[in-house]
Amino acid sequence: EQELTLRVSGRTFTARAVRDGDRIHAAFDPGSIILRAPTPAETDLVVAALGVGPSLVTGACVASLGRARMLVSVAAPEAVAALAPDLDRLREACHQLGLLGCYVHSAPTSAGRVVARMFAPSIGVPEDVANANSTACLAAHLADQGVTDLGVDMGDALGCPATITTSARRSPTGPTILVGGAATITYTGAV
Description:
There is one protein chain. The protein is of the alpha+beta class. It has four helices and twelve strands. Strands 1, 2, 3, 4, 5, 6, 7, 8, 9, 10, 11 and 12 form a twelve-stranded mixed β-sheet that branches. A hairpin with a 3-residue loop joins strand 5 (57-64) and strand 6. Helix 1 (40-50) runs antiparallel to helix 3.
């Protein structure tokens, strides 16, 4: 087991990694996450750009680890998989609202599994294969509902399946989140 320090965009994160045979499990604490309820107008603007029927939307939250993004909950994993957002319209909505993008997710199953997709055309990323920061935001949001551990499946729509794991623990200042995953070592060599 190793403890590491990650420095990204002027922020410092504590991380840990554990090697188990040819797999490495790693997780980091992304820091303080700010959550707020979106206004109905904000939600309507983003949901319209996503192209998802409003009856399938079960909730929304604006979350930030520095730059805000909207988390949109939809009724079922199939609804997440079927999304075909109007990316130009979504980019404009995100610019108008000052959002990084939109993270669409299903409700967690009893085993803590979620299907999610992250669209961030406002920063030039039509869809992200695996987005740890937005998944950490989701973990903070769901921690308020008593959900402590998640396995979030992303990237399937892009042919690059990935699973991001999170754990949330209560603390006096709000939930402490760890976000990470595992990777399999397929090749080692000298450079």
